[in-house]
Known about the structure:
Strand content: under 5%
Structural class: mainly alpha
Amino acid sequence: MANKMVLERAKWGKHLIIVSIATTFGAAVPVGYNIGVINAPATYIQEWCVESFFDSFGVHLTPANLNILWSAIVSVFLVGGAVGSLGGAYIADRLGRKRSLLTCALLFVVSAILFFFCRMANSVIMLIIARLIVGLASGLTTSTLPMYMAELSPLQLRGTLGVLCSMGVTGGVVVGQIGSLQEVFGTPDLWHVALSVYAVLVVACMLPYYWFPESPKYLFIIVKDCEAAKRQLQQLRGSQIALINEELQSMENESVFQSEKRSLLSVLRDPKLLLPVILVCALQGGQQLSGINAVFYYSVSIFERSGLNSTNAKWANLGAGCINLFIAGFSPYLMAKVNRRPLAFYSCLVSGVMLAILTVIVSLIELATWLPYACIVAVFGYIIAYQMGLGPIPYFIGTELFESAPRPAAMALGSLSSWTCNFIVGMSFPSLQEAWNAFVFIPFAVVCFALSALLKFYLPETRGRDSSDIAPLVSEGFRSRPLIR
């Protein structure tokens, strides 16, 4: 009863509001922006690549060579994301959660500068390096930002703040799609501006960096600076003395069992952490293997193959992004009011069903004039099902399954799984689409069904529960039975 009374007094303090808004727009949105911006101006960038290669090296790129080069430009972003994820655990513990985000901001700005000047320098190499650096920043962001927000928030608000990274990425995709429209910056003369303009948002949102608090849990459990942790909690919670005392006591209890930092290798070797690691990696990897980024990387070509002309296909692509963002706007409410297990389970299950329906529609696309529009409806239905749970939950579930010491390593492993699977989809989807045509969505549907089975039997309910209470429920590997109790 006392715990419930304390939770009811949990409020949004001004520092928590500032850091939530600034990090969402200044770190998460740029990640999504760089996913969404590359699609629409692809033809103009490819034409520039052909000219640049001839001017620089005297080489005429064949269509096959251009396809290889373009795949490298798209996919090096994902390679950077995987590498950045691996470094997330080290940087988060070495520099702290707050300075990790500053590192992300610096990488974002450096990459934007390279994007802006690559056309002036007539250098494809500069473009590729910029894509790699922005990938590093994005991987580091997705492995550290959800953890940072979860550690700043009171237990009652943890789900709401946990989905902000997902919402920011989703919103960034839409902003990138808008910025790359031909009516905005997606022209032969301005595509380099489209690739780099996000830097303005990063710089603006990092201006209040001085007022960002450091994670109290990081200070208390990792750094062992109890007084600094208490000061940060007082800054975040204000006059909520009972809540501050309870959180300090919770950190004291947690620190008894976590006396040192945990490396990636030690987390992987710990049998008690096997199941939660699998859950985090399966959710983050399955999030990508469910086909969501195949839709956003190649949605224009999907709609064109379904019978839409180029202009309508681009508008349908933007509509898909807007639907994605609109549904994501309900995520904070859902995370606060609805349990994680049913949301994740039904989201995966319905996503698989919608992908199966999409396969049938695309395979019969030429039999009726209304089927191209049914294809758009099926894509929108898939996006809605995805965004109800499979979209937001994987970003922060690791913060609820793991205690503070192994949390950075677990988040890094989950983010690595996400970026690696994203890379696999980005590289393989065009070839699979060419070979399998409509049936290219079947593997994605299978992944969704398999993931829903894993979640049904092994994902514990984490809403409103401290991570120290969750950890024992999944400590026996696949012998665990973490059903709701």
